[in-house]
Write a structure and sequence with these properties.
Helices cover about 50% and strands about 20% of the residues. The chain is α+β, with helices and mostly antiparallel strands.
């Protein structure tokens, strides 16, 4: 089956057992908090797992084995009130590579500004038209962000509807003054992350994001040399994005998610000239310079 036909089947035709879109592993770690009732965190973990995995986020009908693999790890660091908590949230997601058992990471981000109220056994209900709580908004926001990026990797800008929903959630939460949703020119917030991602001046990045996955990664099993050459060519254009916007949030998200994958790819393909690519990577993501040296070592 061709990749094009596979995508059409993915979004339109599925028959058999239907399922929700996300297959998410959720962990709530409250080891740093001392409370009389630790059961509340187990209940929260169970409730969040059911909320994410049983929610119908889109109108897509997916077979159970096609659900998007992701993970939310909530590390609670402080109890700020009887039912109020603060911590950080690590969010990860990946997509399958055509013809293989490999999953390519598409998102890996640590949200350090997560605070919320939660009472044990309270229902978690998502309503796109209302701000229910910061807990629901944050989890729903990242669910739609994952859906958007995942779909973008199979269809050029195909994730726009889901990214726009994430932006709508961010706008609603911002109106209620919840932490982490500010419109900041300096820091990456939930609002700025998705707002900059769907902006027209980020179209080149989204084009390249699609090409990297659909034209390069999905080619690996059939023609590895062609795939690696395509990766080098695709990433070389990142310098144009950087020159246009040195503070590109999208480039940071990409390199944070892909650094280990790129090292592994070029470790196995040492005959590929990565000299120009390394110049680009060191320029757009100097925070990963130690990792980029591993590519140089293995060339």
């Amino acid at each position: 089956m061709s990749k094009s036909l596979l995508w059409i089947v993915f979004v339109l035709v599925f028959t058999g057992v239907k399922a929700q879109e996300l297959d998410c592993n959720i962990i709530v770690n409250a080891d740093q908090i001392s409370v009389s009732n630790n059961q509340i965190f187990k209940t929260l973990e169970k409730s969040l797992t059911e909320f994410v995995n049983q929610q119908k986020w889109t109108n897509l009908d997916l077979e159970k084995h096609e659900r998007i693999k992701c993970a939310f790890t909530l590390l609670l660091t402080e109890q700020t009130g009887p039912n109020s908590f603060r911590g950080n949230l690590q969010v990860q997601a990946s997509r399958p590579v055509f013809g293989s058992n490999y999953y390519s990471p598409i998102f890996n981000y640590k949200d350090n500004n997560f605070s919320f109220n939660y009472t044990e056994f309270q229902p978690l209900n998502f309503n796109i038209n209302n701000f229910e709580s910061n807990l629901i908004s944050v989890i729903s926001y990242y669910s739609y962000l994952i859906l958007g990026m995942y779909t973008d990797s199979f269809q050029n800008k195909g994730g726009t509807p889901y990214l726009n929903t994430a932006l709508r959630i961010a706008n609603q939460a911002q109106q209620f003054g919840a932490a982490g949703w500010e419109n900041s020119r300096v820091d990456i917030t939930r609002f700025t992350m998705v707002d900059k991602y769907v902006a027209e001046d980020n179209n080149m990045y989204r084009d390249l994001f699609y090409e990297y996955h659909y034209d390069a990664m999905d080619e690996f099993e059939r023609n590895q040399k062609k795939a690696v050459t395509k990766i080098v060519k695709t990433l070389s254009y990142f310098k144009d994005i950087y020159n246009q916007n040195p503070n590109s949030i999208a480039l940071r998200l990409f390199t944070d998610a892909k650094s280990d994958e790129l090292i592994n790819i070029f470790r196995k393909n040492r005959g590929v000239d990565t000299s120009e690519l390394l110049v680009v990577l060191k320029k757009v993501a100097p925070n990963n310079s130690k990792k980029w040296k591993q590519i140089y070592t293995n060339y």
